[in-house]
Amino acid sequence: IQILLFLSSSGLFLESRESHTCGIGFKSENKSCVDTDECVMDPGVCGNHAQCFNTPGSYYCNCDEGFQSTPPNFTQTTGQCLDINECLVGTYECPGDLECVNTIGSFNCSCPKGYKTSRLDADVDECLSSVCGVHSSCFNTAGGFLCTCSPGFVEHENSTCADIDECKDNLDICGTNAQCRNKVGSYNCECHQGYSNYGNNQSKCIEMSCDQFKAESDVESTPETLKHLRALLRSSCESLRTANGSRKTGEQLLENVFTSTDELLSEGNIADSETLNQFLDVVENSMRLIGPQLKEPVTRMETHNTFAEVAVMRGQTPPSGRVTLRTDSALFSTSWETVVGKSYPGFVFAALVSYKDLNSFRDLLHKMSRERPDDEERSVTYQLNSKVVTAVVSNAETKQLSEPVMLVFTHEEERAESEGVAYSCVYWDEGAWSGRGCERAWSNSTHTACSCSHLSSFAVLMALYPVQDTFELVLMTHLGLALSLVCLFLCILTFKFCRSIQGTRTSIHLHLSISLFIADLVFLCGISSTHNQVACRIVAGLLHFFFLSAFFPLVIVIISAIAFPAGYGTDRHCWLSLDQNFIWSFLAPVCIIVVLNSFVFTITVWKLAEKFSSLNPDLSKLRNIKGFTVTAVAQFCILGGTWVFGSFLFYEKVTQVALYLFTILNSLQGAIIFIMHCLLSKPVLTHKEMHNAPKRQSSLDSNYILKISPAHSQTSDSLYEAFHRILAKSHQCVFNVFCRPLQVRDEYYKLISRICSLKEKKYSEFSTNHSSNSQVHHR
Fold first, then answer.
1. Where are the transmembrane segments (predicted)?
2. CATH class of 281-464
3. Could you tell me which CATH class the domain 471-742 is placed in?
4. What is the pTM for the complete model shown?
């Protein structure tokens, strides 16, 4: 796409929008945080036999009548509703001598077995006298009582409760990787060397490896904080494998891990993709080590740069249902069956970790692996638009899950999808983002939901597709540049061969025209030659030089080329790259020149307003205003004022207007120079009087205002001359600095006539010589 000014200003004005992040349980609407109704989003969040009640930022569940939970108010991960056995807890009311019979959620009153009448003698509560003995529980019944042994005990023939030797009754209770040790009312599984049950003494032991925490994983660039964290985790892992020595609790380890991650993210130690890979791997492996050791069913921990939630379930049978974890910027939902996997050792966990400050390393995180060739052809730009999160479960087989997991991300920048914007669900794959195994379920301006068949570190990328320029813009660019090339060529002839206008300013104008001519020609012929990388870089270097004929242009280009040669040429155009802010090697001098030109233009307009009427007092006021306006507008174009329209290119409501103004005014810069410096430089006097009258001050010639164009100028000389004359000769300022009584147009006409006369003379001499030679030959 070939737009002269659009390329020059690319990267100068970046749209900045504040991202608005709401807390847990809230969502952003119209730049304000409103409560998320979890009861509406997930009607089954409380399970069966329960009612959901929404609260600001959260929710709670209450059991239906006839059911209970611990605690009474619970969430999906902290409780569930169980039937109340009214007959056991004594909350039933059966009239007369009817017997209580428990049902799901209620109870019935019926006659005892063996009775048909409706009346019985009053029952005596035998349990009050502790008739069942130790390790048992007494339950009163109508006309009697029932003794039940406590868990871990069994009833003997003499109605006493004796300890159950679980190790003998169930030889596989601890599995093959542990030794079962019986104790009164219970048992312990003592793991073999290299196996662990993570402190869950009645769970089976699984093989445990600490290789992921070995020091050999460190490389030279590994930060010291990461090395110390890995050493701490390795020590804790080894203590679990050997079951010897003291070790930190899961809560202590979790706090140590997030303290270290805060240091890593705050100090900016993550400088390359290799370090980032190590960091994410250590966090994932640490959660696998710490999760099973946490005592509470749900653990939440928030630090300056991290936010984590971990859910743990223990029991003899695998849990079922759904588990949902939340952080400040993401939601993770899956089933306990997926968390368990193929084997259940007696405990499972699921964890979600969100990194608040990892987005500051955008240069590392914006890289997208090229999995779709069409994206490369379309020059798609990817931008991270969510927090990075790591999802971990106890299931070791997470490369291909039996059921996809769901992740919902909050956008950093609220932006709806459009022709140029699309959201992608990705995971970090050893140095680049990849979308394999992740699909976008739904998306709006504030959130994106992802369905993934594996687990890793995830995020949402915003793909920015380049908006194709219209045919009208391309046509205007080509026609404007072609016209400018013709006009600049005529300017070069004029400034080179018109002897009466030769001088310092004319020399400056000549070199200005040559620079513009070469730059426009190179742009027109090579701006889109991206198929050849070497040629594209050469084109970009030439454009950089000829569009920046200010100060020390060659020095700037040489330094830029040596410092970052890869910055010349992009995927779309043969121009300067935005990587490492290389575009500022062009934009910085341009900005300085624009500021200086604005100052000079202000002084020029001020002096014009003071002096214009005195130049020719015979002219009417209307003609003075007209002449002043034309001169001011002309100088605005010559001084590069049209570049100001670049500041509007990134505002959606006026982008098209600014783009068309850019294209029209700046592609015709060569034509404007020709008109102002050649065609409109004739004095006010008539053509005959101009040749016969002595030289005098004429109306203000706009050609000699300080030539500081954003892309072509000899700024230092022109500025010095301008300000010197303004300060030294206030009365003659406008005339001496900005005016010169040249008859350029007449000289231009003379030049054309001289060239034509020269051609006619040469033709006449050729004809005469040819005729003479013919006569001699005839003789």
1. 473-495, 507-527, 539-562, 582-606, 627-651, 657-680
2. mainly beta
3. mainly alpha
4. 0.49
